[in-house]
Amino acid sequence: RMSSHYDASRHALSNLNMMKTVDELIGLQKKHQYILLAFAPICIAVVIMSCLWSDIFGKGASYTDKSTEWESCMVQADYAYIPLSSLIQQGTAASKSYLTACVGGSVNKQCDFSDQNVINCFSYLAFTCLANVPTPTINDVALPTGHFLASLSYIGVQCIVYSCIAHATLNRALRHPSWLISTIGGLIWILYSLLTFYTVNPAFPVPNQINGSLLSMLYYGGSYTKFNDFNGGSNNCQLAFNYLWGYLALNLLIVFTVVLALAIAIYAELIRYKSPNKAKYEPLAHAIVPCVLLALAVFFYLLISFSKIGSSLNALMGIANFDYTQAQAVAAGKTLWYEKVFYPFVQPSMDISTLMYIGVFTSILRGYTIQSISAFRLACASSLVFTVVSYPALVGAFQFYYYNSFNDYNTCWNYFLGAQTGFFGYPDENQAKFYCQMFRVALVGYTGLVVVMHLITVACYVTANANAHRMSEVFEPLEHTQRRLSEKAAPTSAAVGNPITHSLQSTQPLTAQRRESLDGERYSLAEVVIVGNRVSVDRGQGGLFKGSDRFEDGEHKT
Fold first, then answer.
1. With a cut of 50, which residues of the chain have pLDDT below it?
2. How far apart are the first and last CA of the chain?
3. How far apart are CA 479 and CA 486, in angstroms?
4. How far apart are the C-alpha atoms of 128 and 131, rounded to whole Å?
């Protein structure tokens, strides 16, 4: 008898703990909904401004007045120039000077005139004739190597897509708490990508081959000097600068919503972890090794990413310090000229290697946290594809590195100090040394990532094969329309009431509302069938009780 009361008390306490935990999680769901209400209009504003940048890009050729049109400040950020007009003028002037001296010298030498006035007369006539030779008018060659407007437009759309994925996964995890740990990992990766997403390829951080990012845009817009100096100071770039920062502020607000989502996910996981009702899974065999290898893969990817961040900021510093007119650039032997507003990076994109890397990251994280065998199979296939498509880039990277003798520090340093390195921002000595370091870091990161992906392919195959006899843990997510038991399924005479005293002759089944557990299963009181003085509670699929419990009238059962 006392054992029966103890069991009843224990069940009641367990149920109260579960109800408290679920109520806390549902409270977090509501907080997340408030974030989404603020998130939606920000996304609409970003889409509108992304369309504005695309509109300016499409009509770029029409913005020719650099003094009054603010759009020209942004259009010119896409262009570097080969200063042909200055080159030809300088070459023509040098040729005229040489021919003048040549004529005068030849007259003096071959005609043996003793009168200096006669020599000067011939030199004057030669100079006068050559001065009247017309210099051909040739426009500078504009190279649309920058992608400032396209990058601006794409970064906003990219922020929306990534943040939507973040909020969608959190929304699911709050209703399916077994996914919280993998969701936290995914949110951290998304948050990093929102600020500094760089593709795995190309292997080396060449500025005009790597993509732009929100971080490089923030650094680019961190100073108004480049806009103020545009077109010799005769411009209307203040308005362009204001529009740019308004757009960047909207993107930062989107990033902030993901930060809040990450905070909610971490707090929800703490609630789940502290709950005595949390599920305990039987770990998969050999699941630790892929996780360790994944940590190494993340480390090498971060090396690649940091090398591209460093090179991007280094290039922007070099361009900001490029204080030459076209004539001065030609006189200094510079073959490329640009305004200080030049943005040398390409439009962001997604290559196959990066997609496969993301697939490996999310699959291993999901496979370990919820013991999913299929996730390890997906990680195995994704890492295999990654290694196959990475071989050409790896071979090209090593050939470039050794052909240009980058293994010798002085040779590497001098490479970036050459007159042909305009796309690197014409770096000074310190910046050239920094480029050498970044190229070496990138090569180490890319090589290490390819090697680790080979090992991940083998490790995930072994893990999936060793656990092939097991069923993957599958947890049904709760419907988003489900409401709390305390709100909709409270015991009232009009609803469920007391099943013991409710019409003992009734055989009509009474079904309580579904509840959420900490491991994401769908719980319900299932069917409470009263026949005579016996009550049958059948747990059904995912029910609250383990099996079918029968008890006599007057017994207390939680």
1. 5-6, 13, 106-112, 474-558
2. 16
3. 17
4. 5
Q: Tell me the one-letter amino acid at 556.
A: H
**Which amino acid does the sequence have at 227?**
F
Residue 428 CA to residue 318 CA, distance in Å, equals 8
DSSP H or E segment with residue 348 = none
Amino acid 65: pLDDT: 87
Count Cβ atoms within 10 A of the Cβ of residue 539 and give its class: 0-12 exposed, 13-18 middle, 19 or more buried: middle
- Alpha helices by DSSP H, listed for 344-408, are 352-369, 373-403
pLDDT score at 443: 94
pTM exceeds cut of 0.90: no
- Length in residues, the chain: 558
Q: What is the DSSP letter of 427?
A: -
- Cα angle 319, 74, 329; round to 5: 35
Query: Mapping DSSP to helix (H, G, I), strand (E, B) and coil, where does residue 317 land?
Result: helix
Distance of alpha carbon 358 from alpha carbon 374, whole angstroms:
16
Helix (H) or strand (E) holding 186: helix 180-196
3-class SS of residue 134: coil
Q: Tell me: the pLDDT tens digits for 93-102? A: 555 555 555 5
Q: Map residue 490 onto helix, strand or coil.
A: coil
Structure confidence at residue 218 (pLDDT): 93
DSSP states along 274-298 = H-TT---PPPPTT-HHHHHHHHHHH
Residue 529: strand pairing partners: 536
Asked if 146 and 80 touch (Cβ cutoff 8 Å), the reply is yes
* β-pair partners for 522: 516
Burial 464-483 (b: 16+ CB within 10 A, else e): beebeeeeebebebbeeeee
The residue written with tokens 């090589």 in the block is 447
Tell me whether strands 534-538 and 527-531 are parallel, antiparallel or unpaired. antiparallel
Give the containing element (helix H, strand E) for 538: strand 534-538
Give the C-alpha distances (Å, rounded to integers) separating 501 from 205, 378, 536.
76, 54, 14
The secondary structure of 39-69, three-state, reads HHHHHHHHHHHHHHHHHHHHCHHHCCCCCCC
